[in-house]
Write a structure and sequence with these properties.
This protein has two domains: 282 residues, Alpha-Beta Barrel (TIM Barrel), CATH 3.20.20.70; 61 residues. Helices cover 41% and strands 12% of the residues. The longest helix is centred in the middle third of the chain and has 19 residues. The chain has 14 helices and nine strands. The chain has an eight-stranded parallel β-barrel with strand order 1-2-4-5-6-7-8-9, surrounded by seven helices. It is of the alpha/beta class and 377 residues long. It binds flavin mononucleotide. Flavin mononucleotide (FMN) binds next to loops.
């Protein structure tokens, strides 16, 4: 099993959970800069789309060097497509490849991908092996030009991106494969699902403590996550388990990590408009912070590691910077998908509802700045 960058991460690992429509290139840039997560994943990206030359999907795979270690997340159901997509991800310089076996969205599940794989363990294993084979192809020198059915235009794009990578990331070597999944389909099946995954020896299993049927309702069952940790300890013991679901503070992280014995956590929704939640967790893990209440510096002007709460000015500054980064990185995209982030940043502001109405019509960073500068902190 290739541990790759995972071996060198501090424990417990604290990562940013992949979220489609949220963790795009600007979000990942901003949240690495202000939240410092140990690891970041892209939004899930369709392997079938990638191998069928859907050039626009490569947008999901844009990242900059500040985001490392960064993992490309893939979804789909054809093992051969995973093999090619893994080779593409390696050419693009990713530090690892993650397979989505947890998405409950109807269109994904009905196509037999995402969380539907929990009900198809044979295919799930084939997909892990195929992804590993794609990364083995990469390590052994397979050329992207020799992949059947990839169009010239796609190959050119991949080679261009590859040539822009720092030298060390152009070097061929094995990369780790991880899986992100849920505890079951209709009910928890951790006691059979985890051993099945372990047969294919993924480096990491990230486990969201909900079933597919639950979607995002109820709460994440950390006892089932603890069960998965025990199963790993009783078998190979090498695969890492990252627990996921409902972590929003040092208190919840501490309690869940200690009770379950996981090697780390992924944090998703609690980061909306709030990279500081990650920064706090990292400071806690690094021994800088004890708990949320361990400092009385909450009124400081600018957020620094070790400080507890961001000020209103910090949030305004970040909303503006995020908008500028969005414009720079995704200049061809509509500003519409930036607006939800703005709403998240201003949550809890005095005059929030008035400001939100204005922000929901903003079309660029200059307008955002003008609107937010009306606020008198
Ligand atoms: C808007 C949204 C999009 C998501 N997209 C993905 C995705 O692309 N890949 C994935 O593995 N999980 C995805 N998830 C699931 C999250 O990564 C995470 O497992 C889930 O939100 C539970 O963690 P949390 O309670 O910390 O948010 C998504 C969740 C949300 C809310």
């Amino acid at each position: 099993m290739e541990l790759g960058f995972w071996r060198d991460l501090p424990r417990p690992i604290i990562g940013l959970s992949p979220m489609d429509g949220v963790t795009d290139q600007p979000y990942r840039y901003m949240y690495k800069k202000y939240g410092h997560p140990d690891v970041i994943m892209t939004e899930f990206t369709s392997v079938e789309g990638l191998v069928r030359n859907a050039i626009k999907l490569f947008r999901d795979f844009i990242y900059d060097e500040s985001q490392r270690p960064i993992v490309a997340q893939l979804f789909g159901k054809e093992p051969e497509s995973f093999r090619t997509a893994a080779l593409i991800a390696a050419y693009l310089g990713f530090d690892g490849v993650d397979i989505n076996m947890g998405c409950p969205a109807k269109n994904v599940r009905q196509s037999g991908s995402g969380a539907a794989l929990i009900e198809n363990p044979k295919l799930a294993k084939e997909i892990i092996f195929a992804t590993k084979a794609g990364l083995q192809d990469w390590a052994e020198g397979k050329k992207i030009e020799n992949v059947p059915n990839l169009k010239q235009k796609t190959i050119k794009l991949i080679l261009e991106k590859h040539s822009q990578l720092p030298h060390q990331y152009q070097k061929r070597h094995l990369l780790p494969v991880s899986v992100k999944t849920r505890i079951g389909y209709e009910r928890s099946t951790v006691s059979t699902w985890i051993p099945t995954l372990l047969e294919a020896e993924p480096t990491v299993i990230s486990l969201h403590g909900r079933t597919l049927k639950q979607m995002y309702t109820g709460s994440s069952d950390w006892q089932e996550i603890a069960k998965a940790v025990k199963i790993v300890q009783q078998t190979s013991g090498e695969t890492l388990i990252l627990g996921n679901g409902d972590i929003d503070s040092i208190v919840s992280a501490k309690e869940k990590i200690i009770a379950s014995g996981v090697d780390g956590i992924l944090v998703g929704r609690a980061t909306f408009g709030n990279p500081w939640v990650l920064a706090k967790l990292i400071d806690w893990r690094n021994g800088v912070l004890e708990t949320e209440n361990s400092s009385n510096q909450s009124k400081q002007k600018s957020f620094k590691p070790g400080q507890i709460e961001p000020s209103l000015q910090d949030k305004i500054r970040l909303a503006i910077e995020h908008s500028q980064v969005y414009e720079t990185f995704l200049s061809e995209d509509s500003f519409q998908s930036m607006r939800k982030h703005l709403a998240w940043y201003i949550k809890g502001f005095p005059q929030a509802s008035d400001i939100r109405v204005q922000l929901m019509q903003a079309n660029n960073a200059t307008q955002v700045e003008k609107i937010l500068n009306q606020i008198d902190p």
